[in-house]
Amino acid sequence: MVGLKLFRTGTTKSGVTEVTPRLAEVEADVQGLVEEHMETLLGVRFLASEYGTGPVHGGRIDSLGLDENGSPVIVEYKRGVDAGVINQGLFYLAWLMDHRAEFERLVRDRLGVTAASQVLWSGPRLICIAGDFTRYDVHAVREHRRSIDLVRYRFFGSDLLGIETVASVNGGMQVARRVRRQAVARAAVDVQGASMMELAGVVDEALLGLGDGVNRVERKQYRAYQRLRNFACLCPPQRSKLLVYLKVDPQDVDLVPGFTRDVSGLGHHGTGDLEVQLRTPKDVERAQDLFQASYAAA
């Protein structure tokens, strides 16, 4: 983002005019804009702003939310570079884990009983949004056993906002995910056969290999692949196929019966409006462009 240059075309005789990047005047400008459009920008449903942590902790969490997979999310903002943003966020994350019932009541009041019953406490997240981060910040998040995203922002002109994921770590769920994956794999092999599990491994490798910063989140009904927000959801193997849901507009795809399907408006596990049906490794190769498009959109 710091090295990114943005130009408007056709505005001068030379053909282009640079749009100068800038930081917000005050931190609240970033916070207000993100909170208003949190689901679009971060894939997080907004719950509360400036949430008080009580007299013992004596602080206020900038933003509270719930992501697409049901994970609790704390969002902390800084106008520029601030060495304390990660530690401040981790302090509030510790408070959150000690006040689960309070958070679930908040979810129930804002989003309903069903959402409150599906909160995923194995993967609480901290998203830090700031003007920039140092290399020490990036190193620090990789040392913590927590799910942390560092997001850099810039305003361009009067009506453009750019955000960039600087670092994304999902370290706190590694052991739990590995144990669950082994258990699910053993059960699936017994019931569905080894071929579908092998195919699931091929899909897993393909999705993780799309780029840096891909996190994997395990839910009972699906496995989400996340780059700040979900870009793919892989359902448990069926007898003869795998279903993957992508964040690709079905109207932009030449749908092929038996391979791709528009599921916008239809109920299904995971997130995404394009269903991809995979039966063989060749199908995974056919789906690579769709995987890449969904990853890029995230």
What topology emerges from the helices and strands here?
Elements lengths: L5 E4 L6 E4 L1 E2 L4 H10 L1 H5 L1 E9 L1 H4 L2 E8 L4 E7 L6 H14 L1 H12 L1 H5 L7 E6 L4 H9 L3 E10 L3 E11 L3 H19 L1 H15 L6 E4 L4 E5 L1 E6 L7 E5 L13 E3 L11 E5 L2 H6 L1 H10 L1
Parallel strand pairs: 6-7, 7-8
Antiparallel strand pairs: 1-2, 3-8, 4-5, 5-6, 8-9, 10-11, 11-12, 12-13, 13-15, 14-15
Helix pairs in contact: 8-9
Describe the structure.
It is a single chain. Helix content is 37%, strand content 30%. Residues 173-180 have low confidence and may be disordered. The two termini are 16 Å apart. It has helices spanning 27-36, 38-42, 54-57, 85-98, 100-111, 113-117, 135-143, 174-192, 194-208, 281-286, 288-297; strands spanning 6-9, 16-19, 21-22, 44-52, 60-67, 72-78, 125-130, 147-156, 160-170, 215-218, 223-227, 229-234, 242-246, 260-262, 274-278. With 298 residues, the protein is of the alpha+beta class. The strands form three sheets. Strands 3, 4, 5, 6, 7, 8 and 9 form a seven-stranded mixed β-sheet that branches. It has a six-stranded antiparallel β-sheet with strand order 10-11-12-13-15-14. Helix 8 (174-192) runs antiparallel to helix 9 (194-208). The longest helix is centred in the middle third of the chain and has 19 residues, at 174-192.
